[in-house]
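User: Here's a chain of 263 residues. Predict its fold as tokens.
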Amino acid sequence: MTERWASEVETLSLEPATTVLCCDFDGTIADIIDDPQMAQATPEALRSLISLASRFQSVAVISGRPAGFLQTTLGNEVASVVHLFGRYGAERLERDGSVSAPDVTASVRRQFAAIAEEARLVAPGVRVEDKQGSLALHWRESPGVAERLLELSQSKAASGLEVRPGRQMVDLVLPGAPTKGTTLALLLSAGARRGCFLGDDVGDLDAFDALDAFEAAGGTAVRIAVGSAEMPSALAERADLVLADPGEAAEFLSDLAVVTASR
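Assistant: Prediction complete.
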């Protein structure tokens, strides 16, 4: 086991039946790539999540992606034992394979369609990701349009929507929609004594906030940042452990799974 994270592995493996472990998808267990639809989690990370799910109170992936995408990408073996939350927790993959999500009104759907059309006009090269209940505008493949998309996300066209920034993108969601923090807090509230979250982006700070509150209430928390050239400095500053990249995150999860299984 790598000595650099031996302390965190020891902490999380002590009481597996009351431990909750959650992670993001993009940039955490999967590399960030130009075409987000082609992203794949590392097989080592998936094997470890499956192993940990059989011993921990809860193991979950909480992502801005739709829950259906997570199910398809991670596979049924993962989906059968790991909780999959899409759109930060607004969507949840149920054990029967269905996706539970709040209804989106026709007027909001029209607003998303209008924003998508305007985005393609003012920012050629934008990748529009319609998540049915939210709308993401990506500019990784066309960085020159970033400013125009940021202006659009703050314009009258997006009035009434909450803007959630990410790596080379913004997500437009309904006000009051779940965050990674509220979703993690819900899992922790079911009698957990230890909690951990692995993330790489600004939206993962909400999960760190939930762990702060959990710790203040007497729980034991481990905050893990997964690094890259784009990782927000605030995430690294608040983390108990900083990993280099998704490959190293997979190594950490593998070590955690091995130690937990040996107890």
